[in-house]
Amino acid sequence: MNEPIVSVKNLSHRYSVQWAVRDISFELNKNGIYGLLGANGAGKSTIMNVMCGVIKQTQGDVFIRGVDLGRYPEKAKRYIGFLPQQPPLQNDLTVEEFLTHAANLRLMDSSKVKNAVTEVMGKCAISHFRKRLIRNLSGGYQQRVGIAQAIIHKPDFVVLDEPTNGLDPNQILEVRGLIREIAEERTVVLSTHILQEVQALCDHIWMINEGSMIFSGSMEEFDNYIVPNTLTVSLVASPSAEELMKIPGVVGVEELGGIRYRIRFTDAQEAIERIVETSVHKNWRLVEIAVEKNSLETVFAELSRKKSK
Ligand SMILES: Nc1ncnc2c1ncn2[C@@H]1O[C@H](COP(=O)(O)OP(=O)(O)OP(=O)(O)O)[C@@H](O)[C@H]1O
Q: What is the third-level CATH fold of 6-223?
């Protein structure tokens, strides 16, 4: 009974001649939010479409709760909820009609549909719009309906392709809150090209570049992937860059204006000790020194660069 929730083995997919995904493997064994991060065209949607049985992979296997998605799609899909990049909404239906339709498509027991619709509208905070046509909802509420159709049959595994794309900042926060709630009781995989999105939401991150997985780990591991090599320092006496360059361990100096400098070093410990020491010795009056954390963008760029070398 201890089979993984999802198991993807050596997945590759090719559209005509071009490989979009190459030899991706992973297993999900516990609930949480997993982020699939990659630039446009990296292969995220392809992986998600394959994992949800929307397209059939060229090579490899996908198992959902131990069920082979390729061989038993109907059974495996009972465990899956999917919000594609283009939400499959029907604009001329009301929210309630559409969710009833979605429940029927999921082959839910007809006696359970009404309750399931009421429950999911409550969960996604759209009950007050039950009689409203989907076309007349804001983007944020349409996305909530999209998420509601993905979880109406209480799947163990929910896949959300760019779930906050096109939303305004408030709507983004609201939809993220909803995603966190639904992940409390199930496994959620979401794709995004926005680094801050994975940072805000995900327990685990996979980075995809040109169809290959180039990183898999926690957000903290991602953050610490590149050892920092710069620090900022404020010196009231504002010494010249040349003087700072003479400090052992300092390999570059950038004047940031006023009394602030950015210093590039090879070894953080050594550089900090020497800068503090020299500052005391020369009475530069050091008021602030801090190692700069790499921006997520730097990590992203560095990972992509390393892999494509
Ligand atoms: N139906 C298709 N036919 C041919 N090529 C395709 C098709 N769908 C995707 N591709 C190509 O496969 C590659 C991966 O596309 P995919 O949509 O999976 O990437 P993505 O990471 O989801 O990008 P985006 O964020 O832009 O949706 C791209 O080069 C894309 O042009």
A: Rossmann fold (3.40.50)
